[in-house]
Design goal:
This protein is an alpha+beta fold. The chain has helices spanning about 1-10, 15-25, 25-35, 80-90, 105-120, 135-145, 165-170; strands at about 60-65, 70-75, 95-100, 125, 130. The protein folds into two domains: about 1-35; about 60-170, no CATH class. It contains seven helices and five strands; from the N terminus they run αααββαβαββαα.
């Protein structure tokens, strides 16, 4: 019994069904053990990938896409790895995380920054939060929205990310016809 409790405490990202399969007991028994010991498992019918990006539920801005050349999805999430998995289930092409910012203090601040980014890239909108631009242009828009350069985690340690200038963004944004 103790090994079941330890397993369930260590694997709270599993669904009740998967936990029952891995333990070799019924789903009802897993529910009983969880209720008795105050353990909460994922209610979805599939395993949720624990995200390394999650720290105290603080959000970060991400860029997800098929390749660096676009199209890209720009959004905010506390679990970027899980968000990628959700987006991948509806996309036949292989997606990857192209950029993930440092953590933002609050959700309100994250949504504010996300709105600023979407306004900067308004001319590139395909639909909703998907943009027909390169990952580099998206990261430059993120830098402008934050007001300072954000280190790109794909670059080796010790190199600095270049901030985007307003002049450069004016060059890459398409001209609007009146």
């Amino acid at each position: 019994m103790d090994e079941y409790v330890e397993f369930l405490k260590a694997n709270q990202h599993l669904s009740y069904t998967l936990a029952a399969r891995k333990l070799g007991i019924t789903k009802q028994r897993v529910h009983q053990i969880c209720r008795h010991h105050g353990i909460t498992l994922t209610p979805w019918g599939r395993e949720r990938v624990p995200s390394t990006e999650t720290i105290d539920g603080r959000p970060c801005v991400y860029v997800i896409g098929e390749s660096d050349s676009g199209p890209v999805k720009i959004g905010v999430s506390t679990q970027v790895g899980y968000r990628l998995e959700c987006l991948q289930s509806g996309n036949y092409r292989q997606l990857k995380i192209l950029f993930s910012s440092d953590f933002i203090a609050t959700r309100r601040e994250a949504w504010h920054i996300e709105n600023k980014i979407h306004k900067l890239l308004n001319g590139f909108v395909i639909r909703s939060e998907w943009f027909l631009c390169s990952a580099k242009a998206a990261i430059e828009a993120i830098n402008i929205s934050f007001g300072h350069p954000i280190p790109d985690p794909r670059k080796p340690k010790g190199t600095k990310a270049k901030g985007a200038s307003s002049e450069h963004m004016a060059k890459i944004r398409p001209k609007r016809s009146k």
